[in-house]
Amino acid sequence: MSLLTTPLPRRHSVPVRVGNVLVGGDAPVVVQSMTNTDTADVDSTVKQVADLARAGSELVRITVDRDEAAAAVPKIRERLDRLGVDVPLIGDFHYIGHKLLADHPACAEALAKYRINPGNVGFKAKRDTQFTQIIETAIRYDKPVRIGVNWGSLDQDLLTRLMDENQANGSPLTAQEVLREAIVQSALLSAERAEDIGLAREKIILSAKVSQVQDLIAVYAELSRRSNHALHLGLTEAGMGTKGIVASSASMGLLLQQGIGDTIRISLTPEPGGDRTREVQVAQELLQVMGFRSFVPIVAACPGCGRTTSTVFQELAQTIQNQIRDEMPIWRTKYPGVEALQVAVMGCIVNGPGESKHADIGISLPGTGETPAAPVFIDGEKAMTLRGPRIAEEFRELVIDYIEKRWGGPVKGTQDAAE
């Protein structure tokens, strides 16, 4: 039996352009997020969209649930443009999306993509009519559409039909398997209907949101097998804190390893007063630790043990990590390539020196009972030993100096312009 040690090649999907961002095809996996503000509150929504974009969200979805929200969308877009925040905005529509898009053409124009749910785009006889109206609006304004199935609002007529068919066939499938099939069929049939109306395949992204890890893996594996649409990955209702992070990473990590997924969102339930940008950070870290993309320099730090009763290395690792996060918006422009930097902050002599040698720049702080000296390794070689009360501060200065020397050359084009 062989073990999969490297990711499978990305599955071929039809690329979809969303504003200035390419999703699918040969493009890197795209990180996206969603606001939790009242979209009608322009000030708070602009601030949160800007915060998410600056944290690294390459697409941001906003709720468009009523006239006041739809009327606010062009104002939000205008304000963001004035701030220099060009992140594409995705409108999230449920129930009355057809009416909002028709009544607010400026909203339809300002959005870079529409997200609709075939389970609640309309009911009974109105379903096909209202779905058609939204697709025709997308065609008119040349916008892509994400057809996002959610098992919390699944088309009950489709589910009932599949359950009846399964029972008539002697119930060869479990209820869970029928549910998964209904989710897959809802996405594929809706995409087929959109294409029949006239929406090009390169304008369609599919998603199928469930809240259980094994369901997500099974549904997306089947979607991948049965279509070449660009796929948006996301575990809905993932949960709060470590539970949401673990569940999302386990499911999406496995799918990404199999080459499935063109854009992802980590749907974390924020803690009261929590930072919404946390979900962006987790999505970036998932892609980075798996080797798919580089967003920010990696700080490796040992977990600590009885040999490291001092908290100095913990505090230093946290300080370096926070500094990197805070400075990255500036560093991306000032130091192209700095996201590949690897820093090691280790707590004692057992593994500290060796781990530090593997990083671009690393430090091995003295552990309990060790001589108060901290060797620093740069590009695999011991460069110096720090001593005294300013070890942490001096190492931070060394990190900045290393970045400046390695990535702080002339901005591309400056030399040519000078000549």
TrEMBL record:
GO BP annotations, alphabetical order: isopentenyl diphosphate biosynthetic process, methylerythritol 4-phosphate pathway; terpenoid biosynthetic process
**Cofactor(s), by name:** [4Fe-4S] cluster
Per the UniProt record, one Pfam family is: GcpE
Class of the enzyme per the UniProt entry, highest EC level:
oxidoreductase
Q: Which residues form the IspG TIM-barrel domain?
A: 15-284
Q: Which UniProt keywords apply?
A: 4Fe-4S, Iron, Iron-sulfur, Isoprene biosynthesis, Metal-binding, Oxidoreductase
Q: What is its EC number?
A: 1.17.7.3
* Record: residues binding [4Fe-4S] cluster: 302, 305, 348, 355
Q: Which domain of life is it from?
A: Bacteria
List, for all copies, the residue spans of the domain called IspG C-terminal: 299-399
What Gene Ontology molecular-function terms does this entry list? Answer: 4 iron, 4 sulfur cluster binding; 4-hydroxy-3-methylbut-2-en-1-yl diphosphate synthase activity (ferredoxin); 4-hydroxy-3-methylbut-2-enyl-diphosphate synthase activity (flavodoxin); iron ion binding
Q: How is the cofactor bound?
A: Binds 1 [4Fe-4S] cluster.
Catalytic reaction annotation? (2E)-4-hydroxy-3-methylbut-2-enyl diphosphate + oxidized [flavodoxin] + H2O + 2 H(+) = 2-C-methyl-D-erythritol 2,4-cyclic diphosphate + reduced [flavodoxin]
| Protein's pathway | Isoprenoid biosynthesis; isopentenyl diphosphate biosynthesis via DXP pathway; isopentenyl diphosphate from 1-deoxy-D-xylulose 5-phosphate: step 5/6
* Recorded family membership: Belongs to the IspG family.
Q: What's this protein's function?
A: Converts 2C-methyl-D-erythritol 2,4-cyclodiphosphate (ME-2,4cPP) into 1-hydroxy-2-methyl-2-(E)-butenyl 4-diphosphate.
State the name under which the record lists this protein.
4-hydroxy-3-methylbut-2-en-1-yl diphosphate synthase (flavodoxin)
Organism field: Hartmannibacter diazotrophicus
